[in-house]
Design a protein that fits this description.
Number of strands: 0
Radius of gyration: 16 Å
InterPro entries: RNaseH-like_sf (IPR012337)
Shape: elongated
Number of domains: 1
Number of helices: 5
Distance between the termini: 53 Å
Order of helices and strands: HHHHH
Length: 107
């Protein structure tokens, strides 16, 4: 059951009633990927790998949507802490700047 514990925690975290949860989507996905990577050495490799590939495939749509990127980066509790590396931070900055420019054009 240790394999499913991160999924339970991510589900509970994303369902918090007191806070908007769209900002938690990307950090939860990345947290799940990280936890699954750690479990590969302890459990049946092919099962964990299949689970990780399924997660990546099914959640890719959220990682590509600017709304979720902006929700995560604009959440003061998260900012860019969820970004995997400097390359991802740069991509997030580009999305933020592009969306801000769109807003300024509408004014």
């Amino acid at each position: 059951m240790e394999i499913l514990t991160p999924f339970e925690e991510a589900t509970d975290f994303a369902q918090v009633d007191n806070y908007p949860s769209s900002g938690y989507v990307l950090p939860c996905i990345q947290g799940l990927e990280h936890q699954l990577s750690k479990l590969v050495t302890r459990y049946h490799f092919s099962f964990i790998l299949a689970l990780k590939e399924s997660l990546t495939k099914r959640m890719a749509i959220f990682e590509e949507k600017n709304d979720y990127i902006l929700a995560a980066v604009l959440d003061l509790r998260l900012k860019m802490l969820w970004c995997r590396d400097d390359l991802e931070k740069k991509a997030v900055e580009t999305v933020l700047i592009t969306e801000m420019a769109k807003g300024n054009q509408q004014l």
